[in-house]
Each structure stands twice: as C-alpha cells, then as structure tokens.
Design goal:
Peptide Deformylase, globular, alpha+beta, 5-stranded antiparallel β-sheet, 2 helices, 3-stranded antiparallel β-sheet, single chain
Length: 158
Amino acid sequence: MFMPVMEIKKMGEPVLKEICAPVERIDKKIKHLLDDMAETMYANEGVGLAAPQVGVPIRMAVINVDKKKLYELINPVIVEREGAVVDQEGCLSFPGLFGDVERAEKVRVEYINRYGKKRFVEAEGLLARCLQHEIDHLDGKLFIEIAQNLSEGRRDRS
C-alpha cells in the first residue's frame, strides 16, 4: 500500500519550536499519520522523524536505526538516563548540517504504541541518541541549539 511522503519542515518553520500537545486518542487518523511519517523517514533516508517535522505539533515520533525494528512512539517520556557521550548528529529538518551533541549514553523511554499499549524501550548507542533527539523535537528543542562544531557535511570519525 502506497503512503504519501510528507513535506519535512525546515529551519525557520515555527512548528519546529512548538511544545507539542499529547495525543489524547489513538484513532485511524493517528495511525495513518504514523504510517505516513515512517514512509517519509525512509524516503529521506533518515533514522528518526518527529510529528512537528511534518507540521503536526503532537507528541509522536517514529524511529528505525537498523532497518529491522520500527518504533512508533506516542507520548514518549524519558524515565531514566545514564552516562554521557558526545557524537555527531544531523537532522532531516536541517539538511547538510552536522554537529557534536552530548547525550545520555543509555536511556529508558516509556511510550504508548499504535494499539494504545504502554511500552518501554531501553536503549544505548544510536537508538538512545535518536530517542533523545526526537523527544527534544516534541519539546521544541533543536539539535542545532546544543551542538558544538556545527558545520555543513558529515565529518569522518576515523
């Protein structure tokens, strides 16, 4: 089934700075939005996408860092953080920009899935980074505001 690829909002769009509203009810519209967001993320070769990035200021994000497991996160909350690590990040809303961002090394996130069930994900590495990045989007926080060494183009880490 074909799902439309949505327009990704770019730097300067006011919706990117909004604190997003919680999802009150999971209905067909929300499930369609999750599907469309995933399709948009894949089409743009991203590993995460938050609802405000497609112009919808609600607390919802999709993440897939390994092409195996798609996380559909409704009303996600970080409930535990551990450690700290700095690594390079980019963002589909800021194409071509990359910077070093300090994030928790490990996180535990509580969320609701598309079926209304409360779930938890414990993550480290890229998944932990993506969870924190996308949840920041839901709070109107952008990676460019906390990144060091912001530059155009990905830097080789070798």
